[in-house]
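## retry 2 of 3
previous attempt timed out at serialization; input unchanged, resubmitting
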Amino acid sequence: MAHIDSVTLEVTDPTTARSFYDAAFGLGDSLRFRTTDAPTTGFRGYTVSLIASQPANVSALFDAAVAAGATPIKPVTKSLWGYGGVVQAPDGSIWKIATSAKKDSGPASREVDQIVLLLGAADVSASKRFYAERGLTVGKSFGSYVEFDTPSSRIGLGLYKRRALAKDAGVPSEGSGSHRLTVSGDIGALTDPDGFAWEPVPVGSQD
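## retry succeeded, writing output
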């Protein structure tokens, strides 16, 4: 099964971006930064979800992100599936913070149980096949959604129809230019059918 080590956000100012994410989410080396001036407009075709264990943690993460400079897209609210909200970071990336738990079981914290990268796909079946051929095992697959098994990784990976992903995030689906995102893992250097780039795990990185 494939292992995902980290996600690299390509930003105009890595120092400023690191300061924001440390203050908002505290994800450590799971999140890396690289300088770029590549043009990008609108929806970049992906979201990152932070999965927490209880509603209080979702609210704590959401509030910390907004206090650090994020823009609320969807306020935290209860739904049939749980509790969550969406923010846009100052660098333009979109983050969903959620839990399936309906009630709190302890004091609030900013602990993140899992990070899930959701890639918007033009053709979910084609992208699913692309990743399966490179060693990723499909865990869940229904309709326009695919979730891969990455049990050894803190970072999970999924595919979602691009338009549906944008709707879930609460933003228009239109966008062009660079994704401003690179995934580091053990499936080698490649670019998927939707233009998302992968690279080998950085030297010295720890599992």
